[in-house]
Amino acid sequence: MSTVTTVGSFFPPVRCCAPPSTSPLSNGRLKLNHVSNTARRLAVSTEQAISSETTTERNETTMRNHVSNGRLKESEEGEGMKEKQKNPYALELEKTEMELRSSRKSLEDYFEDSKNFIAKSDGGGGGPPRWFSPLECGSRLDNSPLLLFLPGIDGIGLGLSKQHSTLGKIFDIWCLHIPVKDRTSFLGLVKLIERTVRSESYCFPNRPIYLAGESLGACLALAVAARNPDVDLVLVLANPATSFEKSQLQPLIPLLEVLPFQHQLTIPYMLSSMTGDSLRMAMDNAVKGFPLEQTIGGLSQDLVAMSSYLNALANILPTETLLWKLQMLKTASAYANSRLHAVKSQTLVLSSGRDQLLPSEEEGQRLYVALPKCEIRKFNDSGHFLFLEHDVDLANIIKGASCYRRGKYLDYISDYIPPTPPEFKKLYDSNRLFMLATSPVMLSYFQDGKIVRGLAGVPSEGPVLYVGYHMLMGFEVIPLISNFLLERNILIRGITHPMLYVKLKKEGMMPPLQQFDVVRTMGAVPASGSNFYKLMSSKAHALLYPGGMREAYHRKGEEYKLFWPEKSEFVRMASRFGAKIVPFGVVGEDDFGEVVFDYDDQMKIPFLRDYIKGLSEEFVSLRTGADGEVGQQDPHHVGIVPKFPGRFYYYFGKPIETEGRRQELRDREKAHELYLHVKSEVENCIAFLKEKRESDPYRNILARLAYQASHGFDAEVPTFEI
What we know:
elongated
């Protein structure tokens, strides 16, 4: 059982303007209270907390590193890693589930921390509401935006305790603590938060302020946003209590008003019941006229089977406090709902599918429609206390939704934070079966002219532009990105279709944006001239498919055929920064599936034709000036018949230098000549792989499984002779 590891100073000294306890207006302007940067933290912590913080910072330095020359910087402990010749991402994959679980805080730890926090911070629950900054969030990126955490009904402010180590690397976190005995009204809390928001906005006018609220805290965030439309706010709302009128909690108010004091331990049981059946039964019995003592007695018997942390919850929420908070929830819900029309802030709603306290799934959809700049992320297997669940990583969710920015506008290059090794492991594990089924063979052109297995031949220093063939449905991207990161510690940043970032006006026409979060987490950017320019100028390793959607959703019988536009779109931009162009080919789609229902077939069916045209109207065309079918990239689905799995093969050809050729390639004819040369090299790479794979004895998945059964499933499966 851990001790208090998250408590920090109540006046965070790391910014020029700390949240004032009182901020009166003077001549129409807020009076600001400054705190010295050298002020010492008033920490309520233990030696274990300090040790834990130091270890966390050391193990996760990779996350704070930016990309240098297209490669992720090595951590300070790189010397030890060199002994194993592996980077942090490869080492992370070797961790066992037991090791991972030992580093996580349990729900019982949260309640234990809450008890200690209340005892040490306000002597048992007294004092006014105030902010504190967790010690675990003490080291972060430069110019990190402020994140204000607004707690739920408990009011403690430790609801993000499992998220501190990751959020604290990219945010300056302040948490609102509402003491147990405090009786500040909802509007009073709104004004307190509002003063802090306006004070910080005045100090840092070019940075956004994040309001992360759960349940009651989400209503507070919406209210503040509605009252301050001129402040740049980003709202992150977890299971917002704007649906309180439709929840099971509302009938608790009249019950609590007549509940005898000796039965107050029943209340935590009601709130923590994951099924809600007992609470519903209690309400039904009360309505049917059963004696109150009998109803409560039946519920109290079940306390024996509950885990020990319920007693802690009872201390946090005594009956009188719970009644006050429930009444506040009713007020908060009505206040926020009446002002939704005034909320113009960027909003991310997180909805749990198994929230038995609030109808969060339906409410999330309602807010998604009601708020103009709203996106939604659904967690079908999660309960009400979303931030306390092991599999929920708020930092990764915010990054995956493209909601993390440090300025007024999102910059996909400068605001991008690479995935941490644990984040990458989670993504890799979710695709492990696909990696096993495809068993990718990576080949590259080495300096001495030889073709080698692996990625030793690709350039180390950026800028590098990888140009190749886009296989059916883009299935080749997952192994490509993963192997570059694991083998070379190189993060490939894909240039993707803008539809992966656009909120559709018509629901259900495309997969939800949540399905593309992994693509954005791994560094993809929407295709545009400015983003291409920024990638090259930052010396990134970028991935470009000139054939785009036309290749990835090709017609029947068009496997491995390039559909590139006539104009040399990328050559002159690459030469401007002296980028190396690496042509590559990939084959294997015809061993996994065959297109049987393509675009041409669908356009012959009236309702499908209208569906496709409706989709096309939602998106901005990437190549409005392109001739022929290359410019007609109507989004659509294709019908595929799966095959018995074969294998994916990649060949990264000889890098083409553009350094020193900027003046030469300004000439359109010269640029077009190089463009055709790159296209020819991609076709040669594809032809090479198609020929060589015929001699691969392990092209069939059964042969590979037999090999791995005798050599271990982590063993590299051989391939054809090079």
